[in-house]
Amino acid sequence: MDTSSALSLALPIGLGLAAIGSGIGFQGAIGKAMEAIGRQPEASGKIQTAMIIGAGLIEALTIYAFVTVFLLMSKIQ
Amino acid sequence: MVWTNLIEHLGGAPLHLANTEAATHAEGAHEAVHELPSLIKLITTFMDESPLKHFLLEWEGMIYAFVIAALLILVAHLAARNPRMIPGRLQNVVEMVVEGLSNFIVGVLGPEGRGFVPFLGTLFVYILAMNLSGVLPLGKSPTSSPNTTVALALCVFAYVHFIGLTRNGPVGYLKHLAGNPKSLVEWLFVPLMLPIHVIGEIARPVSLSLRLFGNVTGEDVLLFAFCSLGVTTLAAIGSPVGIPFQVPFILLAFMTSFIQALVFTLLSTIYILLWLPHEHAEEAHH
After folding, report:
1. Which of A56, A66, A70 sits opposite B267 (nearest CB)?
2. pLDDT at residue B189, as a whole number
């Protein structure tokens, strides 16, 4: 297997795996935040702020994989 | 077919397998990512080879960034030119934005955070405008280039550390980097904690810039992919227009643009919060 076919196989799979990881992370973060807002609607502002920070950090993991895909895409002939 | 050729030429994306070779040779392999053509790219396709053309193509993102900054300055100037007690339409809108941002930042940083509102608020408005510029027809997101996002993240990095140095003093700054050691055990762990904190500080601008760059580029590439899909499906019957497959993704792009601008601002706010001295005084009090 040459580099370019190995990359064209591995990049989408890698990105998909990273997305699965982030999805699991989001399930915990946003699910719990929604529960918390349901329990205490008056604190929704603070919870939302914290949730968005967390979501940003979780999402960054997929974005790292995404940036790697961009960087390596030029190596595919 | 003329239309598909034009799009292919502008975006540099091979729409037909037969043309792949020609397209990559013509455009050069340096551009791996394809976005919808901007106004500057459109103009340069009608220009002959000249230094000006190369300049325009190379500085595309910078030109858009400066134009957006100029527009924002113009709007702010017009709104603040003669402030009245009963605000006009423009003054009302701008006041609403400023007040919302101010409340948001003060809500995170506390009352003394009001001093940081100009920097952080400008950051939010500027990034939002740059992100949305990629959604507009003939626009381009300057933030879809790592150059812009790294510059923004370095600004935040410099600002945060300037605040850390001035608010804590040089000794307090180093102590903060060492993890605020108090007991003997904590002092013994300083050689371990100091490198960890330094690496953490360096990782912040890296993750800030990569997050913004990746998200905005992803959003623009998605729009291009669905645009070209819409054009190619109707290209067989020679239709001059394609199916607007990209419309639902434009709505998605609006959302990501807003959220990414918010996340960038919010994380910058949190980094400032972590360097402000009063946090630790409170912790010691408990």
Report:
1. A56
2. 84
Q: By residue range, what is the domain housing residue B165? A: 92-278
Taking residue B132's Cβ as centre, other Cβ atoms within 10 Å add up to: 17
Total domains, chain B: 1
What's the CA gap between B202 and B210, in Å, rounded? 13
Q: How far is CA B144 from CA B64, B132, B147, B202, in A?
A: 11, 11, 9, 22
Would you state the pLDDT for residue B279? 52
Mutate to test the interface with B, among A7, A66, A74 (most CBs of B within 10 A): A66
Q: Which segments in chain B show pLDDT lower than 70?
A: 1-33, 278-286
CB nearest to B214's CB, from A53, A55, A63: A63
What is the Cα gyration radius of chain A? 17
What whole-number percentage of chain A has pLDDT above 90? 44
The CB density around residue B125, as the number of other CB atoms within 10 Å, is 20
Dihedral sign (CA B165, B167, B170, B171): negative
For the residues A36-52, what does the mean pLDDT come to?
88
Question: Which of B206, B222, B227, B219 has the alpha carbon at shortest distance from B258?
Answer: B219
pLDDT at B33: 62
Assess if residue B209 is contained within a domain: yes
Say what the pLDDT of residue B19 is. Answer: 39
In-domain check, residue B43: no
CATH 3.40.640.10 is held by the domain A3-72: no
Contacts of A66 in chain B (CB under 8 A): 214, 218
Q: Is B178 within a domain?
A: yes
- Whole-structure pTM value: 0.80
**Is there a domain that residue B41 lies in?**
no
Closest by alpha carbon to B220, among B8, B11, B7?
A: B11
- Please state, in angstroms and rounded to a whole number, the distance separating the CA atoms of residues A48 and B192: 34
Residues B126-148: tens digit of each pLDDT: 999 999 998 888 888 999 888 99
